Amino acid sequence: MKLFIDSANVADIKKAYKVGVLSGVTTNPSLVAKEGVKFEDRIEEILKLVPKVESVSAEVTPDAITAEEMIAQAEELIKINNYDKNITIKLPMTLDGLEACRYLADKGIKTNVTLIFTVNQALLAARAGATYVSPFLGRLDDISEDGVQLVVKIAELFRIHNLDAQIIAASVRHPDHVTRVAMAGAHIATVPFSIIEQISKHPLTDQGLEKFAADWKKAVKS
Ligand code: G3P
Predict the structure, then answer these.
(1) Fewest Cβ atoms closer than 10 Å to its Cβ: which of 20, 21, 116, 133?
(2) What is the pTM of this model?
(3) d(CA 56, CA 60)
(4) Which letter does DSSP use for residue 117 in this model?
(5) pLDDT in tens, 14-66
(6) 81 lines ligand 1 (CB under 6 A)
């Protein structure tokens, strides 16, 4: 399973990219709004920060409701990256979003259909030519449903029917989500930097390092 960072924060994206584990970046209107910067400027900045990743998702803004409005925004967004391949247009899971997805997919532009909460929505997005589909686990857990089970089912559906859309497990809230969606067959998990940090750690790793350091110090002294 590949790892994307779910962030519009430059410092966090830089840190994750430096570690060398990043295959992509996802953003959304809430994440960009939190930064208090102009949307297009931040997307441009991110694209420059992570030249070697497969995808940087830039979402159409919430005021784009019709497929035409979404496509018009997408056409501006792809210019930011000089029509390069790693910009991905993120679209909402609505009929207009699907229509825009099909249009952009037919033009060879990568798409990510977001706010997926059912297997049927994932099926529709895949059939509309989405490069990526983004089920939101944490938000299903929030309403007492099992977000990971949704990923299990979508992965099975895509396998059975040879659908080549990639699953981005999103709204990932803790390390156990990461392990479980990886084992379920998600192609990608998009996570905040805090989760990358968390999953790098184990108390026995820290204890082991302390012991190595102490033994080393003793040996050097003697
Ligand atoms: O990737 C989607 C994510 O940004 C939403 O996460 O925690 O707001 O449900 P959350």
Answers:
(1) 20
(2) 0.95
(3) 13
(4) -
(5) 999 999 999 999 999 999 999 999 999 999 999 999 988 999 999 999 999 99
(6) no
